[in-house]
Design brief:
alpha/beta; five-stranded mixed sheet; globular
């Protein structure tokens, strides 16, 4: 009986470990796909922004619904994560939020009230998703791009905390590549 319990525990453990592997494996056709950043999207907040954000930086792009109040909380959780992890404060990592849909007045007000200091773009027609053929990422809202704008990680460490270690490891590896080049 004890042997069966041990076998079941091992199977459960192996299944769990398999489920937290790099989410990119679930989207093999997206791994290393080059993403086009659409610089004509208007941005909602007045964060410091210039064209340099797209050049030679690692980009963490999070897609949000513009009418979603929980999404504002998610952005605040990103801010807290960035403040806690010194590595995320590296100037080579840029955090970009793209809000899809039509924002309500209260959503815009909340964004201003929270004083979020990273770029938040408004994409009312979901042009970013459509142009880059990212429709299959409906259940994932965060992608990480290397300095060549190729997808290197898929998944949110905010919405899925079990991905946090993989996310941070991915960024650390990419930062080390940048300093070597």
């Amino acid at each position: 009986m004890v042997k069966y319990i041990i076998v079941i525990i091992i199977i459960v453990f192996l299944t769990y470990c398999q489920s937290i592997k790099d989410k990119s494996l679930q989207y093999p056709n997206l791994k290393d796909r080059k993403i086009v950043l659409i610089d004509t999207l208007p941005h909602i907040n007045k964060s410091e922004l210039n064209g340099q954000i797209y050049i030679n930086n690692i980009k963490v792009i999070t897609l949000l619904r513009s009418g979603c109040r929980a999404c504002i909380k998610e952005m605040d959780n990103w801010r807290q994560l960035i403040q806690k992890k010194e590595m995320l404060q590296d100037n080579s990592i840029k955090f970009i939020f793209i809000a899809n849909g039509n924002p309500s007045y209260s959503w815009n007000y909340q964004i201003k009230k929270e004083k979020l200091n990273f770029p938040i773009f408004l994409d009312q027609t979901e042009m970013f998703i459509t142009f880059n053929k990212l429709e299959e990422l409906i259940n994932e809202n965060t992608i990480v791009l290397n300095r060549n704008n190729e997808i290197i990680f898929i998944g949110s460490p905010i919405l899925k905390p079990r991905l946090k270690k993989s996310f941070l490891r991915c960024l650390k590896e990419e930062l080390s590549k940048q300093t070597v080049d």
